[in-house]
């Protein structure tokens, strides 16, 4: 008997196979998101927004209304859509450069204002689409195109701890977590809780997903997984940082 892979109903099959590099973590994150959209039965209410960066390769990934924005501007675009029609469930999908560098002011303001949107941010420790330059999430000592001797924190500063920052500035109804593509079930659980938080209208929701970029890391399969599991999770511990309190929907 032929066994077919279980593909989320919300995926757009006409655009598969997808365009990410082999071994890239984006596909796993979007699989988790697709499964969550199916399980919550919200495909007809979801609007998906993606940034410039490798995340833009997902502009036609789902069978939902989608918008691809300028670099760093996905958060305010999705805030605008949500404010225009609060019945919609909006997802802002971006890289660490898009969310923590050029778009950091938008993330800070949306989290502080408690906009009822979901931000899903992919932390692959580099600017991937442009060839692997240092990002806010590049780790101390990590080599990139622009830190060939490794990131020296005295020169290039310390990495951005995004979920820690968002959990500190967001309101009581916010949901904040950090997942990893190496722990798929947990990552999916966090994405589901983030979307449930938006559906219940409790507050801002934010999930950072630790992800792989073998192309720019220049790693083979084993090295890729080891870097994610051994190096990245030490610097960026996965888990829930904030769950909504006192505002049950
Ligand atoms: C306003 C503007 N500045 C710079 C760029 C060039 N640029 C394109 S993608 C990118 C970085 C992408 O990195 P990240 O957001 O981490 O996403 P990734 O590719 O790693 O998924 C940059 C700087 C641009 N397109 N627009
Ligand atoms: S360059 Fe990196 S992040 Fe971009 S698609 Fe390839 S593996 Fe994924």
UniProtKB/TrEMBL annotation:
The keyword Phosphoprotein does not apply. GO terms for biological process: cellular respiration. The keyword Mitochondrion does not apply. GO terms for molecular function: oxidoreductase activity, acting on the aldehyde or oxo group of donors, iron-sulfur protein as acceptor; thiamine pyrophosphate binding. Pfam families: TPP_enzyme_C (PF02775). Residues 61-208 form the Thiamine pyrophosphate enzyme TPP-binding domain. SUPFAM superfamilies: Thiamin diphosphate-binding fold (THDP-binding) (SSF52518). Keywords: Oxidoreductase. InterPro entries: 2-oxoacid:Fd_oxidoreductase (IPR051457), THDP-binding (IPR029061), TPP_enzyme_TPP-bd (IPR011766). This is Thiamine pyrophosphate protein domain protein TPP-binding protein. It comes from Syntrophaceticus schinkii.
């Amino acid at each position: 008997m032929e066994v077919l892979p279980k593909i989320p109903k919300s995926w757009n099959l006409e655009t598969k196979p997808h365009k990410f590099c082999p071994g890239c973590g984006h596909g796993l994150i979007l699989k988790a998101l697709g499964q969550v959209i199916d399980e919550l039965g919200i495909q007809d209410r979801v609007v998906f927004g993606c940034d410039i960066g490798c995340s833009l390769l997902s502009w036609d990934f789902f069978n939902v209304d989608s918008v691809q924005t300028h670099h760093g501007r996905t958060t305010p675009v999705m805030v605008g859509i949500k404010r225009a029609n609060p019945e919609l469930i909006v997802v802002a999908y971006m890289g660490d450069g898009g969310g923590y560098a050029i778009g950091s002011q938008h993330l800070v303001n949306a989290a502080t204002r408690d906009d009822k949107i979901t931000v899903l941010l992919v932390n692959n420790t580099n600017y991937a689409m442009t060839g692997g330059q240092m990002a806010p999430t590049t780790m101390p000592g990590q080599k990139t195109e622009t830190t060939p001797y490794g990131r020296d924190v005295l020169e290039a500063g310390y990495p951005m701890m995004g979920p820690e920052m968002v959990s500190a500035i967001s309101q009581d109804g916010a949901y904040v977590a950090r997942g990893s593509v190496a722990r798929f079930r947990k990552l999916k659980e966090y994405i589901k809780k983030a979307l449930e938080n938006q559906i219940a209208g409790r507050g801002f929701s934010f999930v950072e997903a630790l992800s792989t970029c073998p192309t720019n890391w220049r790693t083979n399969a084993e090295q890729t997984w080891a870097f994610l599991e051994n190096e990245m999770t030490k610097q960026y511990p996965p888990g829930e940082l904030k769950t909504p309190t006192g505002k049950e929907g």
